[in-house]
Amino acid sequence: MRWLLVGCLCASLAGAQSPPKKRAWIAAAAGAAAGALIGTRGLSFSGVPPADRRAHELRAGMAFGAIGGVLGASLAEALSPDGAPAPHRFWRDGWNTPLFAGVATAQALDFASTRYFRDRGKNEWLLTNALVDKRAAFTATEISAAAAGIGLSYLFHRAGHHRLERWAAAGYIAVGAVSAAANYRYPATGHALF
Q1: CB 71 within 8 A of CB 65
Q2: 52 lies in which domain range?
Q3: Whole-model pTM above 0.70?
Q4: Last residue of some domain: 23, 55, 83?
Q5: Are both 10 and 65 inside the same structural domain?
């Protein structure tokens, strides 16, 4: 996780002299590249059967790359002095505050439900079992995913797409709730989804 944050920060600082939109794209690309590198090379895939190893590397690389890209772009936007004046606050808004609490709750449910099926001997599909079994590393991954969900809403907020800002958070909550329900059902059904 440390390398992902360093990559995002370096990308945002490297593009500091660029126009704001270009700076956000540079930071997003650098964050996605750093995240994909962490997802494919930073995790241990030794416990994954050789036949499934490439698929696991691809899924983990895509997940970490998406998190890194959103975190990089939102960090670049947050550090940018430019920006259109917004019709509402981002953090203490009547809609955003409960939605962001829901994002954090959905991510906490994902953490608990993933630990639930791992404690029953089921294998992780998206990440690796080794990552999920290390509580500190898995907690950092879940916090980063929640920050990326809020960061995506922030990108829409800064771009002036306030309806998308709220729909992104609501969609994140819905996907998280479905994922948690599927994770709790997984030990009983043996199927990854319903």
Answers
A1: no
A2: 1-83
A3: yes
A4: 83
A5: yes
